[in-house]
Amino acid sequence: MIDHDVVVRVARLLHVSEKEAEEHDERVESLASRIFRSLRVVHPSMPVMVDIPLAVDSRAFYEARCQVIEGAVATAQVVIVGRGAQAHLAHRRDVLHVRIIAPLEARLSYVTSREGLDRQAAHARILKKDQEHARYLETFYHRHPSDPHLYDLVLNTGILDLESAVEVIALVLERKALRLSLPAWELGPAVGLPRYPGQPEDFRPPQ
Q1: In the chain, what are the helix, strand and coil shares in percent, each to the nearest 5?
Q2: Are 9 and 68 in contact (CB under 8 A)?
C-alpha cells in the first residue's frame, strides 16, 4: 500500500525533508502564500532585510508526486491512498478507483478515537483535509473529488465495518479484472440483455 511512502519518495526526489514534503502533501499554495513566499521579509533576529530562498513550489511537488504514482503502478500491484490518483490514473482501465465516504458523525468518532482529538479539533481537521484535497484536484486536474465518474465504486462506511468494506472492494476488483480483456463495445450494463418486448412504460402499482 502506498500512503505515507509517497511523502518519503517525493522528499527524496526533490531533496527536501520529509517534514516539508508532508506540509505540501495534496496541498496547493494560496495566492497569499505565494505572494508572501516571494517577498523579501525581515529576519526576526536581524534588523536588516534578507533574501529568503524560494521554497520548492506546489508544481514541483505535484510533478514529483506524479512520478511516484507512475513508478508505483509500473512496478507492482499497489493500493494508492489519495494523492489525486483517481484523476491522474483515470485513463487506465486496469485500475480500480474506490471512494470511501462516511457521515460526518462517523468521521468525527473515528478521528477523536484514533487521534485523541476533541470534537472541535477533529471537525476542524476533517474540514481542512477535505478542502485541501478538493483544491488540489481542482487546481491540477480540474476535477472535484465528489465527481462520481472518477470512481468504479463509492462505498459508504457509515454502517459497514472494515471487513465488510474490504470484501465489497475485493469482489468489485475481481469482477473488473475479469472484463479488462474485452473490447469497449462489450462492456457496460446493457451487454447481454435482450431488447424490451415493447415500449418501456412507467411502473404503476395495482389500484
Answers
A1: 50, 5, 45
A2: yes
Position 125 pLDDT exceeds 70: yes
What band does 57 get if pLDDT is binned at 50, 70 and 90?
low
Q: Which of 149, 181, 155 is nearest to 168 (CA)?
A: 155
Residue carrying the nine cell digits 485523541: 116
Domains plus CATH for the chain? Answer: 1-81 (no CATH), 84-180 (3.40.50.300)
- Residue by residue, what is the 3-state secondary structure of 22-81? HHCCCCCCCHHHHHHHHCCEECCCCCCEECCCCCCCHHHHHHHHHHHHHHHHHHCCCCEC
> In sequence order, which residues have a C-beta less than 8 Å from that of residue 141 and are 6 or more positions away?
84, 87, 88
**Residue 171 φ/ψ, nearest 5 degrees:** -65, -45
User: What is the sign of the dihedral through the CA atoms of 181, 182, 188 and 190?
Assistant: negative
pTM: 0.69
Instruction: Please tell me which of 12-16, 40-44, 121-125 the model is most confident about, judged by mean pLDDT.
Output: 121-125
